[in-house]
């Protein structure tokens, strides 16, 4: 299935410390030849945490949804279609309150009581999509030579945004960080994966984040992606950096899921039998609530 990821406006805006959003995310897949059978995995429900509080959320799909948590703490839904389908519609809607102040200085992302979650050190190992070739490691080295405090990480993000320029339709969901770095262009997914890969190359735990970015001036909203960097694995202290907008995340960012790379945090993944001629239509509406 194609990616829904795209960048939004890149002009910082003034924002209050607490912002509440209403979100409606609809994805429609259409097929020239009907799908005979399909299995779907959704990461379309945000969870409450130190940066946000989910007030209400609902996911609907053409099938019985089962809910679980993965090893990263994400809420996942699964459903299976066993009959022919020429159209599959998935809708996620709800309200999320974002705490902008916490994202400025870092946040403690610890498991809830009784919840098992992987150690931050799990995010040190590279994946095929985030492995850093020698030239990418050499690029990151001057930024991280003195450590990985927040100013160094922001400087690295700024460097990556300049090195991997945002340009739509030059990459796809299978593009690796190394490929995007070599190409010199990509979208938010690619910039985030390059940031993740560069940090991991120096033993710094880093993870990929999928979510939304609210830009009141945008004519169309889209999914977005950024990176979490672990400042202290022992305490679970992280910071969250949006490479595309060259900033620490703030009241404009709504988190959906985290993973080792795009593949493990994608909003929608599916395996199909049949279903040729697939097209995808995504509509995302985000409104700030008073």
UniProtKB/TrEMBL annotation:
Gene3D superfamilies cross-referenced by the UniProt entry: 3.10.620.30
Where are the membrane-spanning stretches?
none
List the InterPro entries: Bac_transglu_N, Papain-like_cys_pep_sf, Transglutaminase-like
> Which ranges carry the Transglutaminase-like domain?
180-245
Name of the protein = Transglutaminase-like domain-containing protein
Record organism: Cupriavidus pampae
């Amino acid at each position: 299935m194609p990616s829904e990821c795209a960048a939004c406006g890149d002009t910082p805006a003034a924002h209050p410390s607490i912002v509440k959003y209403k979100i409606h995310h609809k994805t429609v897949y259409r097929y020239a030849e009907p799908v005979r059978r399909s299995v779907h995995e959704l990461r379309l429900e945000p969870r409450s945490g130190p940066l946000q509080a989910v007030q209400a959320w609902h996911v609907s799909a053409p099938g019985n949804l089962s809910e679980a948590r993965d090893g990263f703490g994400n809420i996942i839904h699964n459903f299976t279609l066993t009959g022919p389908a020429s159209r599959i519609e998935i809708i996620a809607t709800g309200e999320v309150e974002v705490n902008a102040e916490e994202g400025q200085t870092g946040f403690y992302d610890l498991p809830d009581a009784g919840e098992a979650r992987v150690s931050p050190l799990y995010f040190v190992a590279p994946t095929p999509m985030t492995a850093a070739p020698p030239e990418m490691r050499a690029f990151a080295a001057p930024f991280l030579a003195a450590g990985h405090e927040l100013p160094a990480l922001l400087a690295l993000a700024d460097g990556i945004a300049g090195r991997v320029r945002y340009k739509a339709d030059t990459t796809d969901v299978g593009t690796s960080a190394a490929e995007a770095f070599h190409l010199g262009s990509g979208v938010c997914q690619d910039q985030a994966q390059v940031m993740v890969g560069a940090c991991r190359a120096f033993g710094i735990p880093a993870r990929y984040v999928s979510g939304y970015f609210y830009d009141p001036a945008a004519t169309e909203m889209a999914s977005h992606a950024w990176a979490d960097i672990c400042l202290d694995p022992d305490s679970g202290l992280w910071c969250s950096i949006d490479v595309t907008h060259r900033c620490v995340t703030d009241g404009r960012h709504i988190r959906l899921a985290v993973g080792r790379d795009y593949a493990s945090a994608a909003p929608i993944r599916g395996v199909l039998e049949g279903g040729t001629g697939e097209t995808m239509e995504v509509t995302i509406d985000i409104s700030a609530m008073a």
